[in-house]
Amino acid sequence: MRKIITSVVIAFAALSAGTAFANTGAAKLMDAGGSYNGPFGRFDRAQLQRGFQIYKEVCSSCHSMNQLHYRNLGDKYGPYYDPKYPNPNDNPVIKAIAKGYTIKDVDANGAPVDRPGIPADKFVAPFASDYDAKQANGGALPPDLSVITKARHGGANYVYSLMLGYDHTPPHDLVIPEGKSYNPYIAGGIIGMPKQIVDDLVTYADTPENKGVKATADQEAKDVAAFLTWAGDPHQTERKSAGIATLLFLFIMTIFTWMSYQAVWRNVKH
Description:
Blueprint: H1 2-17, H2 45-57, H3 92-99, E1 102-106, E2 112-116, H4 130-136, H5 148-151, H6 156-163, E3 181-182, E4 190-191, H7 217-232, H8 236-264
Antiparallel strand pairs: 1-2, 3-4
Helix pairs in contact: 1-8, 2-7, 6-7
């Protein structure tokens, strides 16, 4: 009985912790405070849409997201999920987003062609190759952002802190090479990416969900961190729901097991 109860407590503690990360070894990360944190946390769809907008209008000029297809944006719990279109390939919003990109393809004869994107296409990469990406970024290769919150210690907090960390004064003994910037939230403090997030960087859609939401640097950093967290773990909500259901089942089974134990051994001396 003690083992069962201990297992339930450990499982609940693990679920409550969510995605736990250590610090980067740099400055202590700030808290992005996402609604998706904790065992009962859920993504805010309006925030995911704002985060995707920031990626599309700002981040995508350098960073790829090779593990995402446009149809994923319409998956359940995704930024543009619509229950009227359980198949995201049929979602008109997703179709419109994909159509806005030009895809390099080949026709039936093997000749290269350019065509409008469709939901089944992968996110278009900003560069044709890693070599081109390095050439355009001073020799640095911008990381793919598909699972950046899984690949970096701190997850969403890392992204949020990094986006807002450019205004700190570097230590007097730290030499910042030309073309580089100081950011205390990255190991070593030197980063090749210049400051990206500023107030009014984007114009958020005028929707009821965005009423009262201002495009401050802090809000933009939180929104893009939320979107990248969803991109790295799009099934987080289903996983949490399954975990809670499992814990509830174990709790009920623990009660019934204890009651059965009491009933069977009630009159037995032990």
